[in-house]
């Protein structure tokens, strides 16, 4: 199981446009085999921050998605951020 999570920064005035431009990609990804979740969302506190989260059953299913993903054309320059891929060997309830 894989989780890709982190944040990106764009100009605050471009943040909502960036998130909206990924709406179709999110819908398509969530319908793909192995995609357990995918979210690209505006951060509620930092104006130029975008939070990203992907949850996949396997590296192979993620790779298959990336081959056909067809991401949107850039609507804003990415100014920075930190995204990490985590390989999960076990999961359970948080509490």
From TrEMBL:
Pfam entry (one): ABM
UniProt source species: Salinactinospora qingdaonensis
Transmembrane segments: none
InterPro entries on file: ABM_dom (IPR007138), Dimeric_a/b-barrel (IPR011008)
Chain ranges of the ABM domain: 2-91
Coiled coil: none
Name this polypeptide is given: ABM domain-containing protein
Matches recorded under SUPFAM superfamilies: Dimeric alpha+beta barrel
Lineage: Bacteria, Bacillati, Actinomycetota, Actinomycetes, Streptosporangiales
The organism's place on the tree of life at top rank: Bacteria
